[in-house]
Each structure stands twice: as structure tokens, then as C-alpha cells.
Design goal:
Distance between the termini: 62 Å
Oligomer: single chain
Low-confidence stretches: 215-219
Shape: globular
Number of helices: 10
Number of strands: 22
Mean pLDDT: 90
Helix content: 25-40%
Strand content: 15-25%
Length: 487
């Protein structure tokens, strides 16, 4: 095409670290595949190579002797020239006039196409959930760990090292190469899953301000992920394929058009509204639409203690509460079943574990309100003081939160306050991945699953003229809740 460019990169490391032949090399991951912190790594290195004292456990450390002198980051110790030559692939072929329309024609009424939902968060850089057209999870996975490398830990550690370097006025190591490396392997993992499972990709349509504000966290990868994925799908090839076969280097797949961060669709990538995908019960479709306060406590239809289940029930009809959202089912029974719900206090900056049932019992006993008979005690609330009403409101809100996290233990789970048709309260856990019908394993898995489910709703509604339907939040609630109702 012409317009070739020549770049020069001067060496940036003048005094490289050299691992001498025969010295002991230490794997940055232990036998449990946990990343060793930089501080701990240096202590182990000083002990094994320089006989410095070390009191830690070395039983899980992986080591090997250096077979020859190894220069750390050698590519940055030498001056380099780079020659970029742009080319057009298939430049004689006619351009697809409207790739989106062509894709919709393929997807409409096609039961063989599956859907990959991708959730982008903090606890998991990326989380993927593959579902079929019945809305069943076939595969779910965090993409923190790829090829035995925990990139989330690596990025977080690099971020902390950069923060320390700024504070100490020492040289700051670059993080962009690590981020680019992660995106490269993550995108490859996703597109391979896409081709192997004949799937479309669905992501949340994130507010540009959201991705911009999250950019201050250097270990996040929001801003470049969408573009890199789109560019990869522009002309997708696999080295292992025969070069002239579909997907080979001379016969690549074109699955997207030019990158557009404001579109609802780009080829086989779809974008859905981000609302109500994470904190939603995957077995009932229940979502929290209101905030309880002392002024609306009397709007509950009934409040009672369930003696056989040992929990409190709050019978609610959303139509009797002020809310800007319209639910589909509206009537729910909110239950305090479950012995731990986490609450983060900004004031104390601590996470507290709350057993809501026991807290309400204590509150009622203190005011000498009888509840053990299982009868409705809502009318007794009106006679109570402001402190009582505030405490009860807080406990009900905590019950309705559904998504709970503990940064100290790394827990992140969904606990539903409503019973499903099997008489169970859904809780996300690792065991859900082994069920005959898989369920989300944690909060991010729940988000990825419902993003995929929103994509299924979108694709199922492709119009006769091959357009995308306009789906409101109310439509989403109806779709999510009707799936679980008894026929």
C-alpha cells in the first residue's frame, strides 16, 4: 500500500539483571499456581542464591538451574529498528455492503447458534458464560487465569509496584506491555471459543464515562478490550488451520466491521444495556427495585416469622411502593434465610457479617413484640420509635441486596431472598458448575450469564425485516421472570 514506516527504539535498560549460568531460577508461581509477591520473591532469591536467612516455607517453591547466562528483559537492553509495511487483504473483493444485516439473516431462527456473554469487572478482569438457545449454561470461566498465568494478580502486583515507585521517586516500570499481553491471550481464548461453539458475542454497552473513570486503575483493561476484539474478528485466522481452508491465513473469517463503540451491533458482536444483569436471581428473575425506609414500611402486604424455616417473610407488591421501574411479577415474598450477609461501612472502612434473622429477633425482643406464632406483626411497626424503624429498614435493604462481597476473604456471591419453584433460595457457589444444569458460580459469573441471556432475548426478537428489537427494562424483567414460571 505504500506508506511504510520505520521506527527506532533506543535501549531503555543500561544495567541489566543477568542470571548467571548455574544460578537458581525461581518460578513466580508456586505449586498451587499462586503468584509470589515481589517482596517475598526477592527474599527467596536472596536465600537460594546468596545464602541469606529465610524463615518462610520453601516446599511449594518451583526452581531450576539457569542453563546459560540469561539477561532479564533483553529486548530492552538493545537498540531496535522496526519496519511496518501496511497491506490490504482481499483488496479486489467487493466490500460487504451491510455486514450487520448479513449476520442477522444468519442468526434469525437459527437454533444452532450459541451465545457468549462477557462480563468486565474488578474481581475478574473478564468472565465468560456460554449458553445455548434454551438459556442453559454450557460453560463458564474466569479469564483471570489463562495458560496457568494469573493475569489479574500480575496486573494488580505491577500496579502496586508502580504506586510504590511513585512514592519513593524511583523508576516506574511500564504496565502497558503486560496489559497488551493479557488482552492478546484473552482475545484468542474468546475467539477460539466463539468458533468452536458457533457462537455470537454479547457484552454490556458501558457508558463511556464509566470506562474513562475506571481507566485510573492501571490494572484494568476496559478501554482497549473492545477494539482489540473487534479488530481480531475483522479478519480472523488460526495458524493451525490449512492456509486455504476457512479460517486459514489466506481465507480468514470476517465477523465484524469497523470498530464503533456506540453501536448496538458490530457483526457477530452485540451490545446490551448494562442494567440488572448482576444483582438478579437466575432461578426466579427477582431484582430489587426499591429502597425501604421508615415511611414505606407499612406498604408491605404482610410481615411474619416463618417458624418452620426460621426466617422472617416480607410480602411485597412493587405496585404499592414508589419506583421508576415496572416489574412483571410484582408480588414477591422477601425472606431473611441465610446466616451471612456482608455490609461494608464507609465510616469504619470494614466489612461486617450480618445474620439478618437473628438481628430482627433481637430488635423485636427488645421491644417485646411477639412473633413466634407466625402471625402478621406489621401493624405493630407504627407504634415503634424512629430508631426501630431505621434499623428494620436497614436489615430489609440488606436482605434485598442479593450480591455480597468480602474483600478480606475474596468472597463474592449472590444470595437470593426469594424461593424458586424448587423451594430453594439460590446461592452462587463453585458447586453450581458441576450440576447437570449449571448455575452461576459467583457474582461475575451471574453477570456474564445474564448478559448472554439478554443477548438471547435480543437475537430471538430479530424482526422480519432483519432489524434488532428495542427491548426495554420492563421487557427484560418479563423475559427473565417468565422463563421460571410454572407452565
Amino acid at each position: 500500500n505504500g506508506e511504510a514506516e520505520l521506527f527506532y527504539r533506543a535501549k531503555s535498560i543500561d544495567d541489566p539483571v543477568i542470571h548467571k549460568k548455574g544460578s537458581i531460577l525461581i518460578n513466580k508461581y508456586d505449586k498451587d499456581e499462586e503468584l509470589i509477591s515481589t517482596e517475598e520473591y526477592q527474599k527467596i532469591n536472596q536465600h537460594l542464591n546468596y545464602d541469606k536467612p529465610y524463615n518462610g516455607d520453601l516446599s511449594k517453591i518451583i526452581t531450576r538451574p539457569a542453563p546459560h547466562d540469561i539477561v532479564k528483559d533483553k529486548r530492552y537492553t538493545e537498540d531496535k529498528y522496526f519496519f511496518h509495511v501496511p497491506i490490504n487483504i482481499n483488496y479486489r473483493q467487493p466490500k460487504t455492503k451491510n455486514i450487520n444485516q448479513e449476520v442477522l439473516k444468519i442468526l434469525k431462527n437459527n437454533p444452532d447458534v450459541k451465545i457468549i456473554g462477557i462480563d468486565r469487572g474488578e474481581r475478574n478482569l473478564l468472565y465468560v458464560s456460554l449458553i445455548n438457545q434454551n438459556g442453559e449454561i454450557e460453560y463458564q470461566k474466569s479469564l483471570n487465569l489463562i495458560n496457568k498465568h494469573n493475569y489479574h494478580n500480575k496486573l494488580e502486583q505491577k500496579y502496586k509496584e508502580r504506586q510504590t515507585a511513585r512514592q519513593n521517586w524511583t523508576p516506574i516500570n511500564s504496565i502497558k506491555e503486560l496489559k497488551a499481553g493479557y488482552l492478546s491471550v484473552a482475545v484468542h481464548e474468546i475467539v477460539t471459543m466463539m468458533i468452536d461453539n458457533n457462537a455470537s458475542i454479547v457484552m454490556e454497552q458501558l457508558n463511556p464515562n464509566f470506562t474513562k473513570t475506571r481507566g485510573k486503575f492501571e490494572h484494568q483493561i476496559y478501554q482497549k478490550f473492545e477494539k482489540m476484539l473487534t479488530d481480531k474478528l475483522n479478519y480472523l485466522v488460526f495458524k493451525k488451520y490449512e492456509k486455504t481452508n476457512p479460517g486459514g491465513v489466506l481465507n480468514g473469517y470476517q465477523l465484524t466491521g469497523e470498530f464503533n463503540d456506540k453501536a448496538r451491533q458490530n457483526g457477530f458482536i452485540f451490545y446490551v444495556p448494562a442494567a440488572y444483569t448482576s444483582a438478579i436471581d437466575p432461578t426466579t428473575g427477582f431484582v430489587r427495585l426499591i429502597k425501604i425506609n421508615p415511611d414505606n414500611l407499612m406498604s408491605f402486604d404482610k410481615i411474619r416469622y416463618n417458624p418452620s424455616g426460621d426466617y422472617f417473610e416480607f410480602h411485597i407488591d412493587y405496585r404499592k411502593f414508589p419506583t421508576s421501574r415496572m416489574d412483571h411479577q410484582n408480588k414477591w415474598i422477601i425472606c431473611t434465610k441465610g446466616d451471612k450477609r456482608y455490609f461494608y461501612s464507609r465510616k469504619s472502612q470494614e466489612v461486617t457479617c450480618v445474620n439478618v434473622t437473628e438481628e430482627i429477633k433481637t430488635l423485636l425482643n427488645k421491644q417485646e413484640i411477639s412473633y413466634q406464632d407466625g402471625k402478621d406483626w406489621k401493624v405493630k411497626i407504627g407504634k415503634q420509635n424512629k430508631t426501630f424503624k431505621n434499623t428494620l429498614s436497614y436489615l430489609i435493604n440488606l436482605t434485598m441486596n442479593m450480591r455480597y462481597s468480602n474483600r478480606d476473604t475474596g468472597e463474592d456471591f449472590i444470595l437470593s431472598p426469594v424461593k424458586n419453584k424448587n423451594g430453594e433460595f439460590f446461592i452462587s457457589c463453585s458447586e453450581n458448575n458441576n450440576l447437570p444444569k449449571k448455575l452461576p458460580t459467583d457474582g461475575d459469573a451471574n453477570g456474564a450469564y445474564h448478559i448472554a441471556l439478554k443477548g438471547l432475548q435480543l437475537i430471538s426478537g430479530i424482526t422480519k425485516s432483519y432489524g434488532l428489537p428495542n427491548i426495554t427494562t420492563t421487557d427484560w424483567f418479563k423475559y427473565a421472570q417468565q422463563r421460571h414460571q410454572e407452565k
